[in-house]
């Protein structure tokens, strides 16, 4: 402040000299004297400005230096970090919003790895202990003023097309959604078909590391197609706009990243969700959500109808993907419920699928019709609010192809939220029973144990 006052005074001094020189000129003072005085005034201003600049620089360094705070017993050094500059993603098109994101899942899997999926040790698809890059995704999402939003996402940890044991990059979600009317959005591209509560839940929001066997064996996962969806009460009953949500879609039915359809038939899938209650209980958000799903598809021979899990029962009771030996017609349905009461969540879902063989062009069916069904019940509770969560899940699955082919598992786990879902540590212990192995002990063990650890990082 003193330097600023000095600078101001110097300016007044220079101005007064100028005025004095003018009067001196009028008094016939020499021109050379007036110029000398002006030069002296300018030099003084430059000197004051230089001193002021050095003083400001010293103040900035002092502000960035550690500050000492003295308590009764010790001195604590507090560091003031310089302000971090924001990172921007600049749209190349006319969209007004563009978001770059992604996440990484790193697993450690030991014991009878993936036995809960029917991958029994020593069987046709047994897996050894391993470190696993489970998911490594990057995505771009955005929105246009014309009521269009979009997402394009890829995964670096999927099969590379040469071997399922190798990693490569392939698409996951790639879609455009028109949301002019909340009651009737239109979505086209590749995304999860609207079927199954657990399947539709985000990979980063799950309370157990892996989804249950009934989900991965039956639910269709990502497909290419188009759907209409929305909240029909948005304008009719705004305060209860989330009460009803519906989804209805038509898809190729051949899985993700496959641009061909096996025949001229399509997969039809629909879901209805109800949110009859939400409020505050025990100081936290609470709600009850109910859901129901329906699916129908006619498939030709060669189609994998268990695209993300295992469904076919092998001679030793283990499971592998079910690739149709002849045409079929599938009809599946499910019901689910999710209750949240403060720190407690209770989730349950039942899924059933009828796989009926078809006679096409007079050719006999190469497999017998069967009904696969299963369920899971899962509970979780925050031991330390928003930090430490305990979870437990019981699941049972009946592939429905031979006698005593049920597989059941219990999962217990802990989740530690280092920074919410952005940085999360998970640990699960899974114990699995095989009814087939118990009834046929010549094939080996009928009980299996696995431990899975996961680090989740979102950005």
Layout of secondary structure:
Layout (H helix, E strand, L loop, with lengths): L1 H25 L4 H34 L2 E4 L4 E4 L18 E15 L18 E14 L4 E11 L9 E11 L6 E8 L4 H4 L12 H6 L3 E9 L13 E8 L15 E15 L2 E16 L12 E2 L5 E2 L7 E14 L2 E14 L12 E15 L3 E11 L8 E15 L1 E12 H5 L7 E12 L1
Antiparallel strand pairs: 1-2, 3-4, 3-20, 4-5, 5-6, 6-7, 7-8, 8-9, 9-10, 10-11, 11-14, 12-13, 14-15, 15-16, 16-17, 17-18, 18-19, 19-20
Largest sheet: 16 strands, antiparallel, barrel
- Considering the protein shown, what is the CATH homologous superfamily of the largest domain? Porin
Task: Write the H/E string, N to C.
Answer: HHEEEEEEEHHEEEEEEEEEEEEHE
CATH architecture label name of the largest domain: Beta Barrel
Mean pLDDT: 88
SS class: alpha+beta
Strand numbers in spatial order across the main sheet? 3-4-5-6-7-8-9-10-11-14-15-16-17-18-19-20
Number of helices: 5
- Whole-number tally of structural domains: 2
Low-confidence stretches: 1-19, 21-27, 67-79
Global Rg: 34 Å
CATH topology of the largest domain: Porin
The helix content is 10-25%
Cα shape: elongated
CATH domain class of the largest domain: Mainly Beta
Percentage of residues in DSSP E strands: over 45%
The number of strands is 20
End-to-end CA span: 45 Å
């Amino acid at each position: 402040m003193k330097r600023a006052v000095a600078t101001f005074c110097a300016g007044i001094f220079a101005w007064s000299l100028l005025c004095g020189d003018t009067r001196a000129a009028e008094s016939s003072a020499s021109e050379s004297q007036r110029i000398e005085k002006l030069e002296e005034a300018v030099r003084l201003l430059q000197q004051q400005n230089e001193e002021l600049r050095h003083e400001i620089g010293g103040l900035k360094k002092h502000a960035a230096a550690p500050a000492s705070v003295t308590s009764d017993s010790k001195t604590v050094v507090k560091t003031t970090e310089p302000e971090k500059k924001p990172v921007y993603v600049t749209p190349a098109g006319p969209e007004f919003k563009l978001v770059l994101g992604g996440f990484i899942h790193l697993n450690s899997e030991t014991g009878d790895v993936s036995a809960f999926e029917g991958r029994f040790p020593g069987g046709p698809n047994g897996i050894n202990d391993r470190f696993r890059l489970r998911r490594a995704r990057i995505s771009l999402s955005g929105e246009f003023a014309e009521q269009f939003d979009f997402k394009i996402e890829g995964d670096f940890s999927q099969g590379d097309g040469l071997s399922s044991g190798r990693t490569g990059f392939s698409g996951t979600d790639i879609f455009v959604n028109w949301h002019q009317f909340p009651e009737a959005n239109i979505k086209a591209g590749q995304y999860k078909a609207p079927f199954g509560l657990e399947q539709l839940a985000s990979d980063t929001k799950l309370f157990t590391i892996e989804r249950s066997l009934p989900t991965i064996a039956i639910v269709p996962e990502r497909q290419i197609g188009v759907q209409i969806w929305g909240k029909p009460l948005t304008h009719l009953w705004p305060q209860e706009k989330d009460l009803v949500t519906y989804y209805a879609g038509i898809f190729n039915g051949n899985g993700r990243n496959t641009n061909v359809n096996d025949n001229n038939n399509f997969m039809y899938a629909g879901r209805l969700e109800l949110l009859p209650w939400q409020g505050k209980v025990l100081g936290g958000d609470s709600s009850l959500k109910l859901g129901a799903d329906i699916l129908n598809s006619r498939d030709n021979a060669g189609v994998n109808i268990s695209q993300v899990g295992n469904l076919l029962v092998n001679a030793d009771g283990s499971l592998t993907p079910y690739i149709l030996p002849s045409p079929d017609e599938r009809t599946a349905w499910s019901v689910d419920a999710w209750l949240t009461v403060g720190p407690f969540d209770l989730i349950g879902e039942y899924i059933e699928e009828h796989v009926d063989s078809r006679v096409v062009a007079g050719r006999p069916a190469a497999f017998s019709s069967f009904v696969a069904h299963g369920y899971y019940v899962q509970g979780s509770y925050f031991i330390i609010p928003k930090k430490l969560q305990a979870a437990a899940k019981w699941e049972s699955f009946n592939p429905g192809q031979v006698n005593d082919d049920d597989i059941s598992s219990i999962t217990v786990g802990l989740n530690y939220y280092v920074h919410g879902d952005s940085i999360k540590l998970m640990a699960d212990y899974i114990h699995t029973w095989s009814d087939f192995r118990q009834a046929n002990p010549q094939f080996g063990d009928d009980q299996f144990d696995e431990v899975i650890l996961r680090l989740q990082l979102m950005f």
